[in-house]
């Protein structure tokens, strides 16, 4: 088929289903079980080891501040150079062994060590390689493919509070963590091992590897004077000189800071500060991630039908308006309302960044570009929960910390609102004078 003068080829349906299913399972384990599962155990660490909230969230902070800057760019280069599959295999093993190690820790330095390993597993096996894998295999249906794959995060996140609560009640938190680690390896490793990097020339239906030349080129608008459009062959340096990149990065950082701050402290807040039982807290947290499934489906569907900027703005505003409901935690009804609104926003939060980045910049350097954005996101996701924990430790209340999260979320929404309209404008770079 030809579009805009370029030939495109679609891989076989069976191969594309395998790719989408692989990303579903890998994200189910790496993000759903490991990322969303670990904060469910913070209250046990506070009770059993007498650690502060700052300490139990500093593992997440240190891991992202150390692993993100050191390995984020390397992982982006690696996935562009060698493909996402090998990186995913390493990430799965690291994340699985990290949870097993956390289940056997006895001192704080072990907590930090295994958290670092878990963060490395997330960088290598989480969103970055899966976003690139899906972008290579899907073109017009990319939004729906990512929406389906990212359902794995919601399904894993919705199940892990209930599974963890049952395992903890039966065997204790140590065994529960080790079981989760084993599940990551057993479930995800076979899928990642069997998947192909990208469509190839010998596919039975003539599909081929996506080359940068098949990317859609946007129309130069008359209002953009003295500028040229970004071609797929442009370097990452050209992209980094555009204002839209920094607006995208700022919006993503602020949203993930708000999401991370709320997620990392939700179980601590409900269990230790508001007196919710383990079962009730698990049900609320499970509902958050269950609603994220609907959010991923909805936002993926919308992303294929309306400007992605508008979808991104909806997502970020949902996050911003949900956090004030946490002040009403004395009412279980308010907490379930929080779970619904926050969950819908959470569902699209990870999904939208690679979609709008691919639309703006193409997939030719998508791995490196996402490496930059995800590294910046990692810093925000590290600092925000630790800051909220520190504010809780020094003030004895989450009030100041929650106000911080609201302000950050609104800042992210404002940055997204300043992005160009995706269907009417394209990114332009000034020609050298």
Provide a descriptive summary of the structure in words:
By secondary structure, the protein is mainly alpha-helical. It has one domain: Up-down Bundle (Growth Hormone, Chain: A). Helix content is 73%, strand content 2%. It is built from 16 helices and four strands. The chain has helices at residues 13-35, 42-49, 53-82, 84-102, 108-125, 127-137, 142-149, 151-171, 173-194, 236-240, 243-273, 278-303, 308-322, 332-361, 366-395, 399-417; strands at residues 2-3, 6-7, 227-229, 428-430. The strands form two sheets. The chain has a two-stranded antiparallel sheet. Mean pLDDT is 82; it is low at 1-9, 201-233 and 423-433.
Provide a short characterization of the protein structure.
The protein has one domain (12-198, 210-430): MFS general substrate transporter like domains (Growth Hormone, Chain: A, Up-down Bundle).
Main β-sheet description: 2 strands, antiparallel
How many β strands by DSSP?
4
What distance lies between the first and last C-alpha atoms, to the nearest angstrom?
A: 39 Å
In CATH, the architecture is: Up-down Bundle
User: Count the helices. How many?
Assistant: 16
Describe the strand arrangement of the main beta sheet, using strand numbers: 1-2
Which percent band covers the strand fraction?
under 5%
Q: How large, in whole angstroms, is the Cα Rg?
A: 21 Å
Helix content: over 70%
Mean pLDDT: 82
Regions with pLDDT < 50 over 5+ consecutive residues? 1-9, 201-233, 423-433
CATH homologous superfamily - what is it? MFS general substrate transporter like domains
- CATH topology-level name: Growth Hormone, Chain: A
CATH class: Mainly Alpha
Secondary-structure-based class equals: mainly alpha
Q: Shape, please?
A: globular
What is the element string, with H for helices and E for strands?
A: EEHHHHHHHHHEHHHHHHHE
> What is the domain tally?
1
């Amino acid at each position: 088929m030809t579009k805009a003068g370029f030939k495109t080829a679609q891989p076989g349906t069976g191969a594309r289903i395998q790719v989408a299913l692989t990303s579903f399972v890998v994200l189910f384990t790496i993000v759903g079980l490991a990322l969303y599962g670990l904060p469910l155990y913070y209250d046990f660490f506070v009770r059993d080891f007498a650690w502060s909230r700052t300490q139990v969230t500093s593992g997440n902070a240190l891991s992202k501040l150390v692993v993100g800057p050191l390995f984020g760019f390397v992982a982006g280069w690696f996935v562009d150079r060698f493909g996402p599959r090998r990186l995913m295999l390493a990430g799965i093993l690291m994340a699985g062994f990290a949870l097993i190690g956390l289940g056997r820790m006895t001192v704080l330095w072990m907590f930090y060590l295994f958290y670092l390993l878990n963060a490395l597993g997330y960088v290598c096996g989480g969103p970055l390689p899966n976003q690139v894998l899906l972008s290579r295999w899907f073109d017009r249906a990319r939004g729906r493919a990512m929406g389906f794959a990212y359902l794995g995060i919601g399904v894993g996140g919705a199940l892990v509070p209930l599974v963890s609560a049952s395992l903890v009640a039966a065997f204790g938190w140590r065994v529960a963590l080790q079981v989760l680690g084993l599940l990551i390896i057993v479930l995800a490793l076979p899928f990642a091992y069997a998947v192909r990097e990208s469509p190839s020339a010998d596919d039975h239906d003539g599909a081929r590897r996506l080359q940068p030349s098949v990317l859609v080129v946007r129309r130069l608008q008359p209002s953009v004077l003295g500028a040229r459009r970004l071609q797929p062959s442009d370097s990452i340096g050209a992209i980094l000189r555009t204002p839209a990149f920094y607006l995208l990065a700022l919006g993503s950082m602020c949203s993930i800071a708000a999401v991370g701050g709320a997620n990392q402290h939700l179980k601590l807040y409900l269990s230790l500060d508001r007196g919710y039982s383990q079962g009730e807290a698990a049900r609320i947290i499970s509902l958050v991630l269950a609603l994220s499934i609907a959010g991923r489906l909805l936002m993926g569907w919308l992303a294929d039908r309306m400007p992605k900027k508008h979808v991104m703005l909806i997502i970020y505003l949902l996050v911003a308006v949900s956090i004030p409901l946490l002040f009403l935690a004395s009412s279980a009804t308010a907490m379930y309302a929080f779970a619904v609104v926050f969950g819908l926003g959470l569902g699209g939060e990870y999904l939208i960044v690679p979609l709008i980045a691919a639309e703006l910049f193409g997939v030719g350097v998508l791995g490196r570009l996402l490496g930059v954005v995800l590294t910046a996101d990692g810093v925000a996701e590290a600092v925000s929960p630790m800051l909220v924990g520190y504010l809780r430790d020094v003030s004895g209340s989450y009030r100041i910390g929650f106000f911080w999260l609201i302000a950050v979320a609104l800042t992210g929404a404002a940055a997204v609102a300043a992005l160009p309209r995706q269907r009417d404008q394209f990114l332009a770079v000034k020609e050298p004078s």
